[in-house]
């Protein structure tokens, strides 16, 4: 072996071990959506080196398109000392963020819906707390972060999605005389009983009979048709914790539930009932969204907790779940859904859209964490 070749081998080994140190630094980066370092997550860190450029790819298990610049900055900061001295001195860094969204494993559970990786229920213990508004914006925020998303309006008492999405009067196409093809709205696939009801639909249809229609919709909708399926199907549940809700939670293989509440005492007590209902049927509670938490005066900008503060956080801690986010009581949130242009669409870079996107990332990160729990299980081979 010539001296020159020997030097070269030494250098590449040095580079190799420096790249390993760099990967270790990256592993300590904090993932804001789960609150954990990458090392504690099922994240993938890839490091490559070509022509004095270090290539770094980080793959997370939830959609996070809006966060790429933030991750790049933090990755650069953490790698900087290794690019300033030593064998990688002067090298450039190229960073890319990817997401690979896993399906919820459901051992022993009924068959998940065809074409759907994860089903997320948005529920509330009582009516009128903003469950539908949250479900619509959450679905759109997941899509804005890069996921393929569907939204099912299961609120049989008052399907409000067509109004909130601006799809009133639309009818889903029927394929092969059997399957409903979802109605597209702002880039997501949607199905609502509202699409099947007319002004003449009798009131009785909206109660027990609607629940039969819902079962049919659940089993006969072609989600993700013609593409690669859906990453998430968000289900706007009927309000309350009665039999219909329980059956729905048991019938569908849920990745988890998001509980929407307001800070009023009564709503919080109802939120606890919601948490307990899902736990009873072994559905993970992904967290709580506290809606109408703060009121910001449109004149002076002063913020006040008119319904009391900190309730969502208290319940989250007490019931060992997460506070996914708090939303202000804002006239804009109401006006946007009333006009069929939810805030995530009407003002995608605004503060309110930012709140919903953060809630979406945290919700999806919890689903990812839960799916990783299966890693500890022994692999069972059935032959
Ligand atoms: N953060 C908010 N700020 C202001 N208005 C809101 C907010 N969230 C929801 N609203 C408004 O409150 C009303 C009730 O909201 P929504 O229909 O989403 O509640 P819900 O819990 O789904 O009700 P239901 O039980 O009737 O299905 C709507 O008019 C909506 O626009």
Provide a compact summary of the structure.
One of its GO terms (cellular component) is cytosol. This is Iron-sulfur cluster carrier protein. The protein is of the alpha/beta class and 383 residues long.
Characterization of this structure:
The protein has 383 residues and is of the alpha/beta class. It has two domains: 3-99, GMP Synthetase, Chain A, domain 3, CATH 3.30.300; 116-376, 3-Layer(aba) Sandwich (Rossmann fold), CATH 3.40.50.300. 37% of the residues lie in helices and 23% in strands. It contains eleven helices and 16 strands. Strands 6, 7, 10, 11, 12, 13, 14, 15 and 16 form a nine-stranded mixed β-sheet that branches. Strands 3-4-5 form a three-stranded mixed β-sheet, covered by helices on one side. A hairpin with a 3-residue loop joins strand 8 (173-175) and strand 9. The longest helix is centred in the N-terminal third of the chain and has 25 residues, at 3-27. The radius of gyration is 24 Å and the shape is globular. The site of adenosine-5'-triphosphate (ATP) has 20 residues, from helix 3, strand 14, strand 16 and helix 9. One of its GO terms (molecular function) is 4 iron, 4 sulfur cluster binding. This is Iron-sulfur cluster carrier protein. Binds and transfers iron-sulfur (Fe-S) clusters to target apoproteins. Can hydrolyze ATP. Pfam families: ParA.
């Amino acid at each position: 072996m010539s001296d020159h070749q020997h030097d070269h081998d030494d250098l590449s080994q040095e580079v190799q071990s420096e790249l390993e140190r760099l990967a270790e630094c990256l592993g300590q980066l904090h993932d804001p959506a789960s609150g954990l370092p990458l090392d504690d997550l099922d994240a993938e860190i890839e490091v490559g080196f070509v022509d004095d450029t270090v290539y770094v790819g980080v793959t997370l298990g939830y959609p996070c398109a809006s966060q790429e610049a933030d991750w790049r900055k933090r990755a650069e900061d953490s790698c900087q000392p290794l690019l300033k001295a030593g064998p990688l001195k002067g090298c450039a860094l190229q960073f890319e963020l990817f997401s690979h969204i896993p399906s919820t494993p459901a051992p022993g559970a009924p068959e998940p819906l065809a074409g759907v990786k994860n089903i997320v229920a948005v529920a509330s213990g009582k009516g009128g707390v903003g469950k539908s508004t949250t479900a619509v914006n959450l679905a759109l925020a997941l899509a804005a972060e890069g996921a393929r998303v569907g939204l099912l309006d299961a609120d049989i008492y008052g399907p409000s999605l067509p109004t909130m999405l601006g799809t009133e009067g639309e009818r889903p196409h029927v394929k092969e005389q059997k399957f409903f093809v979802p109605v597209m709205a702002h880039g997501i696939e949607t199905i609502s009983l509202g699409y099947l009801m007319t002004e003449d639909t009798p009131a009785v249809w909206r109660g027990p009979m609607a629940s039969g229609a819902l079962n049919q919709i659940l089993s006969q909708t072609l989600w993700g048709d013609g593409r690669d399926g859906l990453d998430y199907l968000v289900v706007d549940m009927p309000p309350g914790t009665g039999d219909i809700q329980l059956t729905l939670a048991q019938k569908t293989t849920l990745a988890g539930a998001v509980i929407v509440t307001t800070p009023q005492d009564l709503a919080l007590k109802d939120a606890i009932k919601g948490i307990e209902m899902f736990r009873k049927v072994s559905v993970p509670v992904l967290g709580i969204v506290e809606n109408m938490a703060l009121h910001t005066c449109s004149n002076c900008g002063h913020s006040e907790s008119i319904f009391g503060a900190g309730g969502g956080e208290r319940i989250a801690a007490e019931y060992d779940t997460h506070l996914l986010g708090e939303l202000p009581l804002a006239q804009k949130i109401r006006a946007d859904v009333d006009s069929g242009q939810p805030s995530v669409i009407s003002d995608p870079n605004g503060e309110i859209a930012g709140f919903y996107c953060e809630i979406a990332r945290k919700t999806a990160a919890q689903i990812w964490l839960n799916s990783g729990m299966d890693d500890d299980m022994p692999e069972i081979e059935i032959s």
